[in-house]
Amino acid sequence: MTSIHPHSKAKALKPGSRRPAKELCSECGLCDTYYIHYVKEACAFINQQIAELETIAHGKSRNLEDENDCYFGVHQEMMAARKKEPIEGAQWTGIVSSIACEMLDKGIVEGVVCVQNTKEDRFQPMPVIARTSEEVLAARVNKPTLSPNLSILEQIKESNLKRLLVIGVGCQIQALRTVEKELGLKKLYVLGTPCVDNVTREGLQKFLETTSQSPDTVVHYEFMQDFRVHFKHEDGSIEKVPFFGLKTNKLKDVFAPSCMSCFDYVNSLADLVVGYMGAEFGWQWIMVRNDKGKEMFALVEDQINTKPVISQGDRKQAVQQSIPAYDKGVTLPMWAAKLMGVVIERVGPKGLEYARFSIDSHFTRNYLYVKRNHPEKLDNHVPNYAKKIVSQYQLPDK
Ligand code: FAD
Ligand code: SF4
């Protein structure tokens, strides 16, 4: 890594102007601040440096010879967990919000970077620095859209914050780790979620309209471990659409180009990661990456039930078959998709093997995307662990 000079007060880019990463920009927010000065080094899509940053954040980089390390990144501990009393309206059971509330209430941090939504639109992200539990809770539930969380970075120095928790997804956290030492903080905690297949606000609309029967009443959705997308509607009803019935031909351009070229699904650089895909249905999945993560996790241990992670089934054939199917934009008739969903739920991969299924499917798809659209970036942009994962499969030549 090259060294960073103290930033001259560079000027933030105007909203809507072309970003340094061009079409690969994930709107992480860095370029909305004077920290744009560091963009060439910090941007996850210009300068992939996960291994180096892992060493700085966790004291070591992942061991590629260890399968769990290679797939899920550096970790001290991994488990399934859920809140004894789930937070109403959270994405899952609200472990992320609970940790953030505890950190504020106990005075461990003075502020929490999180993302609320605008008054007019429940899916329009509005990053804030929350100072109270109420403000943290107002940010619960995923905004399944690119969110400029780092756009609040200038406020940190202005408000003289010294101890901060940042909640964010992989690309935001990679940029944050690079500028971390410039922020004037005494202590930074990072609570991450996995992230994949994110979209712009317009892309989200298209996804909802092509996939849900009632797009306007969707409150949240998740690609679940039962191989169905679960849409939760305003009246509390759940609509389930099998993955295999998604109109892939129509949805091909929906996902943001940044997410089609991302290999940090598991948020490698956060201190603690809270997702769901490595746990059985109904449970969340926790990875404690380092001592700070351990400290954060301990704050909610009495509020949650935990159990060991499991791993069942064999993903490899399903992944290999999905590669040409996705490429050709195959959509199964709904009855066949439902049937396939039921069969695969019974015999398909579960627990960590499901997480590997999801990582393999996305990494192979994204590898092909980068190879076809940005061949000059392929070598440096794809981390070594992702190259190893992709090499298990046969990809089309072109
Ligand atoms: P809550 O208590 O509801 O809190 C959610 C937190 O997420 C809030 O603090 C909010 O600030 C933050 N947040 C919401 N939207 C965004 C955003 N766009 N960018 C940054 N931060 C945001 N987990 C998996 O295991 N596999 C996946 O494939 C996966 N895909 C995801 C895709 C997206 C776009 C996102 C945002 C998350 C994804 N997750 C995934 C994580 C998972 O859906 C839950 O967010 C996680 O388990 C935490 O649930 P919770 O109930 O504890 O969160
Ligand atoms: Fe700037 Fe972030 Fe976009 Fe990269 S992804 S160009 S750092 S806003």
TrEMBL record:
Pfam families: FrhB_FdhB_C, FrhB_FdhB_N. InterPro entries: Co_F420_Hydgase/DH_bsu_N, FRHB/FDHB/HCAR-like, FrhB_FdhB_C. One of its GO terms (molecular function) is oxidoreductase activity, acting on CH or CH2 groups, with an iron-sulfur protein as acceptor. It comes from the Bacteria. Residues 162-308 form the Coenzyme F420 hydrogenase/dehydrogenase beta subunit C-terminal domain. Residues 78-154 form the Coenzyme F420 hydrogenase/dehydrogenase beta subunit N-terminal domain. This is Coenzyme F420 hydrogenase/dehydrogenase beta subunit-like protein. It comes from Crocosphaera chwakensis CCY0110.
